[in-house]
Amino acid sequence: MGGESSEPPTWRRRLRRELTGLLALKVTALALLWWLFFSPPHRITVDDEAASRRFGVAPPRLQHQEDNRGSELLTRGGRSASGASQ
After folding, report:
1. Higher pLDDT residue, 73 or 48?
2. DSSP structure string for 6-54
3. N or C end of the chain: which has fewer CB within 10 A?
4. Where is average pLDDT lowest: 7-11, 13-17, 48-52, 75-79?
5. Quick one: 36 exposed, middle or buried, by C-beta within 10 A (0-12, 13-18, 19+)?
6. Alpha carbon distance 80, 63 (integer Å)
7. Backbone angles phi, psi at 7, to 5 degrees
8. Cβ-proximal residues to 72 (8 Å cutoff; 6+ apart), any chain
9. How far is C-alpha 2 from the chain's CA centre?
10. In this structure, are strands 72-76 and 62-66 parallel, antiparallel, or unpaired?
11. What's the CA gap between 34 and 9, in Å, rounded?
12. What tens digit of pLDDT does each residue of 47-57 get?
């Protein structure tokens, strides 16, 4: 009744504007950081040889063995590909 306005007080409008601006700034900063450090052009491929040179560990060599049915199995260090010892 009387002189009430449907608009929120000026401090609420100012607070809403500042919070919206800060959130937009944060989203922009996060997008920029992702683009600078994690985007696809900045990803490298690492193969077994490069990783083993870096850590000083020899990669396991795959050996071809035949099981008693005559089919070939790939093994790593004496274990079959399924994990069972032979």
Report:
1. 48
2. SSPPHHHHHHHHHHHHHHHHHHHHHHHHHHHHTSGGG-----HHHHHHH
3. N
4. 75-79
5. exposed
6. 9
7. -85, 145
8. 64, 65, 66
9. 59
10. antiparallel
11. 38
12. 888 888 888 87
H or E segment at 55? helix 48-55
Token pair 């009387």 is at which residue? Answer: 2
Place of tokens 């401090």: 11
Q: Is 72 helix (H, G, I), strand (E, B) or coil?
A: strand
How big is the chain by its Cα radius of gyration, in Å? Answer: 31
Give me 84's structure tokens.
Answer: 């069972």
pLDDT score recorded for residue 82: 52
